[in-house]
Amino acid sequence: MRRFAPLALSLSLSARSCVVPPLVLSLTALALGATPALAAPALSPAAAATEAAHDAAMEGYLYFYPLVTMDLTRRQFTHPSQGAQGAPANTFLHQRALPRPGAATPWANPDMLRSTAWLDLTAGPVVLSAPDSHGRLYTLTLLDMWNEAFATLGKRSTGTARGNTAIVPPGWTGTLPSGMPRIDAPTAYVWAKNLIQADSPADYPAVNALQDGFTVTPLAQWNLPPQSQRVKADPSLDLKISVREQVESMPTDAFFTYAAELLRKNPPHATDQPVLAKLRRVGLIPGRPFDFDKQDHPVKQGLRRGLRAARDRMQAAAGITLGGVNGWQRETASAGVYGNAYLRRALSAQAQPGAGLPEDLAVLLLAADSQGRPLEGAHRYTLHFASGQLPPARAMWSLAAYDSQGMPVANPLDRYALGDRDPLQYNADGSLDVIISHAAPEPGAQANWLPVAATGPVTVLLRAYAPAAALLDGLWTPPAAVRDEPAPEPQPQAEPAPAATSAASPAPAAPAATAPAAGTPPAGTPRATPAAKKP
């Protein structure tokens, strides 16, 4: 998935401007004696070369950003010195337990156990074997080196029965075993990311056994005894610096030289012709190495400026495709498949390389309450799902709470997610109230309680697996989080003023009145009813 963080809500209003036809503006300018604008002078050959290289580098950086990011991610993961943090090519690394405080990565999924492998197709196809999950939900996403999800296996697409599927590299024309399904990979390396449903620690034995049933076998070794792999260490690879930091600190010459080398091994998509034509004019040609030092000085200058402009553009555009309603944030642009939206694809690789398809998993982030205030652990909130308005998920849904660092928070119930697999208590009309707070609610409402940290920012993620069309199309929105406010203190009432008397004829003496008890409103004033607490 892309990475989520608490986002402040902001609204801006812009006035509609009156549009005047260009002809009217031109005639008005001439009537006032204005001189018509002259055409810009032609650029010198050197300036034209610099501008062309600037444009090519700006678009080329966005185009190549996912490719460079994915390759560094692959190389770090498969490096022998990674130990338990990685695995050799064509081997799955399994997460064996659900996230817990002190043993989790930021924004970890509390519903699924994860398995990851990098498939190496440079020597030919591999066979991806899946066990029979007996109906248990799993989604295995295959991504190419351009950060595009090109296939998924699992309950939503291929089913949960046992099977073997050949993953074939570009241009391969060999023969597969009879009846074996074939998936053509766009690139010679493929990232396989698997999620398997796990409801609780009691599920671990069954789910861990399923994880072990997912294997990768080179086609050349199919039906042969397993053979040990020869793993070569890459001494030039930096394992301490994050992939993102390495990519965004690369000098211009190093970035485009690296990208050109990767382009020789990882074919571009068929629709990439326009950007490839632009890159060709500055010496970046598919299938050929790129030598920055052989470029003319104006081209070098333009490439450097274009790369800086692309980085500025990514920084300015980060988060602009997030839409918000009721305090919830959701990604409104495409995810998993991007086509020629190179900026969008680069931003996805920057935030969370390897994002899957929204048809498999949709994630929404609760960033603010019903009044636009950021969620805080010191307060109690209620999410009221009206009858028939629960998250529209065909598989399952859950709510998970995180602290300011994206980590689960220790709590007395050992509960880090709440969803439709839990024994929730519904109201008589079929609606559901979910309580988000640090302090435990009354005993009758604890079935619907999502615990959070005592203080500091709080973030809640809603995950919907196999979301229905209403959610994918933006026609369904989660309810706002309403913060419980303390009941107002009763205000003391002023004493009534004594009645005026006439000086000419004194008024008869009135019977002694009994003063109202302190704090009691005068007769006729509606009594304040304490705010009822929701379960």
Can you put this structure into words, describing what you see?
The protein is of the alpha+beta class and 535 residues long. It has helices spanning 22-31, 45-77, 204-213, 243-249, 252-265, 273-280, 297-317, 342-351, 469-472, and strands at residues 93-94, 112-120, 126-130, 138-143, 149-154, 163-168, 182-184, 189-197, 215-218, 322-325, 328-331, 361-366, 381-385, 393-402, 417-419, 432-437, 449-451, 459-467, 481-483. The strands form 4 sheets. Strands 10-11-12-18-14-15 form a 6-stranded antiparallel sheet. It has a 5-stranded antiparallel sheet with strand order 1-2-8-4-5, with helices on one face. The chain has a 4-stranded mixed sheet with strand order 7-6-3-9. Helix 2 (45-77) packs parallel to helix 8 (342-351). The longest helix has 33 residues, at 45-77. The radius of gyration is 32 Å and the shape is globular.
